[in-house]
Amino acid sequence: MRFVHARSISFSSFPRFIGRALRVPIAGVTVGGGTFAYANYKFEELRNKTAGVFGDITDGLFDAWSNVQDTLPTSETIGERKERFREWLSTFNKQTENDNDNNNDNDKDIAKSIIASVAVGASLDSNDNNNNNQQPNLLMNLTRKLIEIRSILLSIDQTDNLKLPSIVVIGSQSSGKSSVLEAIVGHEFLPKGNNMVTRRPIELTLIHTPDSNKEYGEFPSLSSYGKLEDFGAIQKILTDLNLSVPSSECVSDKPIDLRIYSPHVPDLTLIDLPGYVQIAGLDQPDNLREQISNLCEKYIKTPNIILAVCAADVDLANSPALRASRRVDPLGLRTVGVITKMDMVTPNEGSAILSNKRYPLHLGYVGVVCKAPKRGIIDRLSDNDPNMTGAIMKREENYFQNNKELFNKPGLLIGTDTLRKKLMEVLENSMSSCLNNITNAVQIEQEEAAYQFKVQYNDRRVSPESYVAEVIDNLKAKLRDFQGEFSKPQVREKLESMLDDRVMNILEQLYWNDVKLNDLGKNNIESDHDNYWAYKLDTARSLLTKSGIGRDSTSLVADGIRNLIEALTDGPPFSHHNNAAERIIELSHDILRDKLSITSDQVENALKPFKFEVDVEDKEWNKGRRHVLSALEGEQKECDAKLSEIRKRVGGYRKLNNIISYLKSLDERKLNQEAEIENDGVNNNEPAWKLAYNPAHLIEARQAMKLSERLAILKLRMSTLRSSKCKFGNGDNTKVETICPEAFLTVVSEKLAYTSSLFLQIELLQSFFDQFPREIDSRLMYDLDRNAINKFARENPTIRSHLDLQERKDKLEDVLKRLESLLHLKEQDKPKARRFSLF
Ligand SMILES: Nc1nc2c(ncn2[C@@H]2O[C@H](COP(=O)(O)OP(=O)(O)OP(=O)(O)O)[C@@H](O)[C@H]2O)c(=O)[nH]1
């Protein structure tokens, strides 16, 4: 190793040298870094800045530095290590003094001092970090911790005052934005294509995972995709999400959140935005240019860092990215310029652009060559390393190496790796300087959220799980309450009412339209008189018992249950949970469907004996007789009421009678006409359509005629039913049954209803009300995962507001705690910063 002459350097000489030689902020040295990698990065940066001026001095120093690193025992204490570096520095000074080759070059002294001091500073920093486990170097993890905090804040608030800085990538279309981002990540994963494929902001969070070899991406708001290790799949999803914005709109400000975990990426947050366009295409909106500008404008606001991407082969004067950045950051304090496609201009031109004289940016420009070399199919197949960083870096390194006399100049920043480190440093510094402001802002928001939570909810907490459990418990409780509506007497009553209608139909069909009805109950009119009516009764019983009561009574009860479930899921809270309500209804239908046919068969079987014979006891008869009498009385009242309404509408009793008489005369005339036509084939009378009354009244009168006929029959039958002819125990009960079919059929229908209700109770109702709540638990509740429970609870706007505020309050409390602990650590870290300033 050869050391050239240098003046002896000391710790205290550092700031002066740094100030003169580096002319860049040194915050990274005093507060950042902390690892050998970081020290190496600083070295590299120095090498770039000094090599052109100071020649081979740096090489000697780098060798010395490498040796120190290699021989560092890991168990040293901070004090021991400090001592070691002092020794190293003093040996280094002595050596360089001895190595005096009569060259008293002040600049070389400076260079050596800088390099040595940076080495010591960074190493001590690293040393503190490695050896003091109780208090890890805060600032090493500052970016990572603030990125986590940023994600939490973004999940609760999109307002500007709670925003931590992120790096926003802007540039014109095809300037190389995606290529730069992919080079930083080391994978091809961004949407590609000519048809303006970046239509939404892509919020990219890179998470450095040093302890894992795995590289994967996650879309936090699309958890169903899970961890995606295939970057091609990430590219496909991003493309689909972008193209979901129709061409006619082209741009949307709804961001896509993507996180990438890898041991090869730094902790960074980057936002890729649609590229600036000059003119809109034919199928694109006219105001596309304005839309993109507005979107970029929204993102380039403070505190974000702007990564202004400009292609080397396009004049910087025409760069829309630089123009936009200058508007919001005139001094370029938070703008890093990236000159892409350095290989597309001559090295002289490239070097001139990077020297940053025409459009100076405080944070400078970094020149990159990000185009990966094209690989053939054979290369791809044999490529075990899907990571593309190596290939890009190699190409880039070759390019700059081949032109090192132009690019190895102080102040020129080149290469993707330098860019990466620069971004880490800038983001870290920016986040660090935001710490106090953001802590204050979060504290204000947290206090407000805590106050609102107290006022609105009296600090009562809810959880999606407890809400779901409450909803389901309430449903089950209501179900138990309504089960009473399906008790045995109630079901029987419903069935009786169904069968009453059926009895009335049969009576009308078989008896009340029978012209011989007046003779029913009279003695010895014709020889087969008794047989006639006995046969009729048999037919009536048969019609009633064989009318499909099993099927109909089962359907009646099943419909009742369906209506009940629909009613239960109709109002709140299920009005907020349409899917769940549908699912519950579906579940009830499934259970009923399984039970319907078996229940119907069971009921039908139980009714079989009644199809052949029905034994009626006195008590049953009397009850049936009373029942039917009251039913007929009810019908009589109904007919009377209808008749009186018709009278009112037509214009009174007399008028109605007149119309009825008129109708009767018409009917008679019609009959005569028909008879004449039948006999002579000629119609001699006037046409019947010459009407004397309002046609609506004629219709009403026809109705009145029918009602009168029905009333006459009802009166006749009620008088028979009330008479002793319809009393049991006066002789032949079978005859009584024949004379009083209304009472007999009512008794039969009551027996049928009673038996049916017994079987329906056992086969359908009990088993449904047992099974349904269990099915809700097993097929509805247990199916729900955390996300589904959360989604369900949030469907209810009241619960959603409660949960939102609660979550906001909790997250703000969490963030505040994290920020306070970072501030505390930063406070503790201050002596270290002072220490470096003493160099
Ligand atoms: N020669 C060369 N080509 C590059 C470089 N960087 C990017 N390119 C090429 O430039 C073209 C555009 O690059 P992209 O990275 O897609 O540019 P972009 O700004 O993301 O484009 P949009 O998303 O359409 O706005 C591609 O063909 C890249 O391969 C570079 O450093 N050198």
UniProtKB/TrEMBL annotation:
Pfam families given in the database record: Dynamin_M (PF01031), Dynamin_N (PF00350), LIS_MGM1 (PF24550)
Gene Ontology biological-process entries: membrane organization; receptor internalization
Primary localization class, coarse: mitochondrion
Enzyme class per UniProt: hydrolase
Keyword rRNA-binding: no
Record-annotated GED domain positions: 734-827
GO CC, any one term: plasma membrane
Chemical reaction(s) catalysed: GTP + H2O = GDP + phosphate + H(+)
Database matches in CDD domains: DLP_1 (cd08771)
InterPro entries linked to this entry: Dynamin (IPR022812), Dynamin_GTPase (IPR001401), Dynamin_GTPase_CS (IPR019762), Dynamin_N (IPR045063), Dynamin_stalk (IPR000375), G_DYNAMIN_dom (IPR030381), GED_dom (IPR020850), LIS_MGM1 (IPR056495)
Keyword annotations from UniProtKB, A to Z: Coiled coil, Disulfide bond, GTP-binding, Hydrolase, Magnesium, Membrane, Metal-binding, Mitochondrion, Mitochondrion inner membrane, Nucleotide-binding, Transit peptide, Transmembrane, Transmembrane helix
Domain Dynamin-type G: 161-436
Coiled-coil regions, chain positions: 802-829
Enzyme Commission number(s) of this protein: 3.6.5.5
Subcellular location per the Swiss-Prot or TrEMBL entry: Mitochondrion inner membrane; Mitochondrion intermembrane space
Sample GO molecular function, one term: GTPase activity
Family (UniProt): Belongs to the TRAFAC class dynamin-like GTPase superfamily. Dynamin/Fzo/YdjA family.
Family annotation (PANTHER family): DYNAMIN
Protein name: dynamin GTPase
Native organism taxonomy: Eukaryota, Fungi, Dikarya, Basidiomycota, Wallemiomycotina
